[in-house]
Structures are given as structure tokens and as C-alpha cells.
Design brief:
Blueprint lengths: L2 H15 L10 H8 L2 E2 L3 H9 L7 H9 L3 E6 L3 E6 H25 L4 H18 L1 E3 H10 L8 H11 L3 E3 L8 E4 H4 L8 H16 L4 H8 L3 H11 L4 E5 L2 E5 L11 E4 L4 H4 L13 H4 L9 E4 L2 E10 L3 E8 L5 H17 L3 E6 L1
Parallel strand pairs: 12-13
Antiparallel strand pairs: 1-3, 2-3, 4-6, 5-6, 7-8, 9-10, 10-11, 11-12
Helix pairs in contact: 5-10, 6-8, 10-12, 11-12
Length: 361
């Protein structure tokens, strides 16, 4: 392949493997099991990350899977918020928690969150959730404050994160559109004893089958693993993978696509895996537009993708019955493509059950 064919192959295969350009799943839990975990910095947008990859699945069905505990939200991998199937959460958490704890040591020292104080906080939170099953974040913050524990300066977020990393809490069901916490023991089945080598193998297998073609450096970025662990994981699965060397980098993937892209235009949410799952995003975003899609402080904006390339960004503002959807294209598109884009924008509005008001800049 010449360089342009290589890049087109990478984009096409990623679209298919991530089920953006090819919809095989109808069940959000099954799709998430295929993807392993997806970033959920923006919770509502992460629902669309699943919805845009499913066939005719309304937001309510994803919310139902979340409320029933089939899909959970917690901090994993890099670390940041992720949606993860209940079947994966325990081994993924045990695999990534030690590395995350190491990263957080300096912040905890700065915030005067000692090990003893964190244990006290986790016990208070755990006892409250044993009594009430699930509680809003605000209620748990009040509990900590009443117990003489300051939650200023983002201390509350670090306390809850510590409780997540210990496997004590995770997301509970929505409560009047407010997020809640619940005991992990009540939300996720007990898994077999943790086996680190098996977990590394599972993670690499999930990543390269759902995100490939991708490099080892991409996997390290996405997983948050140390290089030696990521290399060990890749070594365990590479006999089941294909590899190609392009631009002096080795790309790994599970198979050569035997299907075609079903749709040319895709409306992807903020922090979508099509961008964030890779260290190198130059295949997708032109350098001249890079800062429009990804800010200097790491905010990944919702993008519009045409044939694998980012051609613009979009923003939604939700009102009671309507959704104002603002579109900024990097360059003009023809009438036929604009029709396809309008269809995608209306598809998103249908997903969230709102009447769309489209604004083009």
C-alpha cells in the first residue's frame, strides 16, 4: 500500500472495529463488553458514544442498562471516568488501581489526605451505602463534612476516587438526573480471584480487537499501563493478531475487514474513543484544525467525521423540549453530504427525544 492507502485502511478498520461505521450490536451491554470500557468524562455524551454505535437504540435503553447495574461508571485505566460493563469492572479495577494510586500520591499529600484519613472516609461512605443502598454525591459530601472532614479544594473527588480504587463504591442508578454512588458489592458480581497475567491478556485482546489497527504506544496511552506491562500483554496476544509496519511503526489488529462502511458521516460525542483511544490522532484531524477539536487543556470536543476524517465540530444545548445543535464545519461540504449530516443531527435529537434546532456557523 502507498501511504494514503495505509491511512485509509487504518481509518476504515477502526470505524468498523469500533462499530461506528458498521452496527452489529443492539444491546448496549454487549457492545460495551466488546469495547471493554469507554471514556465517560461527560456522562450524557458517553451514552451517545454507545447509542451512535447501536442499531435504533434510544437513550432510555442505555439509561435502563445503567440503572440496572449492567453498565457502571467509575475511574479506570489512565485514570478518568469510564463506562464499563459490570462483568469487567472488578478485574479492570484491580489491574489499573495500583498504577493510579501511585499517580495520586503527590496530590493526596498536597491535599493532606493521609492513608488513615482516607480509610476513615471510605468506612463512613461504605456504612452509609450499606444502610441506604445508594446516595447522591451531595449527600455523601454532607456526611463527610458533618463528620469533621473537609471536602474543600477538590478533596471530595479524591476521597470518592480512593473509595472506587479500593473496590468499595461505583456508580448507582440515576436519581432525578443526579448521579449517585452505590456499593460495588451490590452492583457487580463477584469475580474469580485476580490473575494479573490473565487480566493483561484480556485487556490487550479487547483493545486490539476493538481499536485496531493500533500501536503499542497507543495501547500504553489508552490503558495507562507501564510500558513493560503493556509489552507483556501484547506479547501474550500477538500470535492471534495481524501486524503491518507503516511509517516505521507497527500496527496490530485482529482481522482484515470483510464488510463495508454503512454510513459516510458520523456524529461523535466529546471524548469519543475514535479519537481518545490513540496517542497519535493525526490520521483523523488535520493539523490546521487540531486545536478546534482538542483544546490545550485536553478537552476533546464532539466531532463530525466524514469517511474517517474530522470535518467539523458540534455542540448541543439542551432545553426542555428542544436541543440546539450548533455545527462548525472546517470547510464547506456539498449538498448531498449536507443532507447526510442533517440526517445524523436529527438521529441524535431522536436519540435524546428532543426536537432539534440546527445552527450552522
Amino acid at each position: 500500500m502507498d501511504p494514503s492507502e495505509n491511512i485509509n485502511f487504518i481509518k476504515k478498520t477502526r470505524l468498523i472495529n469500533q462499530h461506528i461505521g458498521y452496527h452489529r450490536f443492539k444491546n448496549p451491554k454487549k457492545l460495551l463488553e466488546h469495547l471493554g470500557a469507554i471514556q465517560s468524562q461527560d456522562f450524557q455524551m458517553s451514552k451517545w458514544a454507545l447509542g451512535s454505535r447501536l442499531s435504533n437504540t434510544p437513550e432510555q435503553q442505555i439509561t435502563q442498562a445503567f440503572n440496572e447495574g449492567k453498565i457502571l461508571r467509575t475511574h479506570l485505566l489512565r485514570p478518568t471516568w469510564h463506562l464499563v460493563p459490570a462483568t469487567n469492572i472488578r478485574w479492570m479495577l484491580e489491574l489499573s488501581a495500583p498504577q493510579i494510586k501511585t499517580i495520586l500520591r503527590f496530590a493526596h499529600k498536597e491535599l493532606e489526605l493521609t492513608d488513615g484519613l482516607l480509610i476513615k472516609c471510605i468506612n463512613l461512605i461504605g456504612n452509609a451505602l450499606e444502610k441506604h443502598r445508594y446516595l447522591k454525591r451531595e449527600s455523601l459530601v454532607q456526611l463527610l463534612e458533618k463528620s469533621g472532614i473537609s471536602t474543600r479544594d477538590n478533596r471530595a473527588s479524591h476521597i470518592f476516587l480512593a473509595a472506587e480504587l479500593e473496590g468499595i463504591i461505583c456508580s448507582g442508578p440515576d436519581a432525578n438526573k443526579k448521579t449517585t454512588y452505590a456499593l460495588l458489592a451490590d452492583r457487580a458480581p463477584v469475580s474469580p480471584p485476580f490473575n494479573r497475567k490473565e487480566a493483561l491478556t484480556n485487556l490487550a485482546s479487547i483493545y486490539f480487537s476493538s481499536r485496531g489497527p493500533a500501536t503499542l504506544e497507543d495501547f500504553i496511552w489508552w490503558s495507562g499501563l507501564r510500558k513493560q506491562d503493556a509489552q507483556l500483554a501484547l506479547n501474550e496476544v500477538k500470535s492471534n493478531l495481524h501486524s503491518e509496519k507503516w511509517d516505521e511503526k507497527t500496527y496490530w489488529f485482529s482481522n482484515f475487514p470483510n464488510t463495508n462502511i454503512e454510513e459516510r458521516i458520523h456524529l461523535l460525542p466529546a471524548f469519543d474513543e475514535y479519537l481518545i483511544a490513540y496517542k497519535n490522532r493525526n490520521h483523523v484531524i488535520p493539523q490546521t484544525q487540531y486545536k478546534k477539536a482538542i483544546s490545550n487543556n485536553g478537552i476533546f470536543r464532539p466531532i463530525i467525521v466524514l469517511d474517517g476524517d474530522a470535518i467539523g465540530i458540534w455542540k448541543r444545548t439542551l432545553k426542555r423540549n428542544t436541543a440546539n445543535i450548533e455545527v462548525t464545519l472546517f470547510s464547506p461540504i456539498n449538498k448531498d453530504l449536507k443532507v447526510l449530516l442533517h440526517q445524523k443531527l436529527y438521529e441524535f435529537a431522536l436519540f435524546i427525544d428532543k426536537k432539534p434546532q440546527l445552527i450552522f456557523h
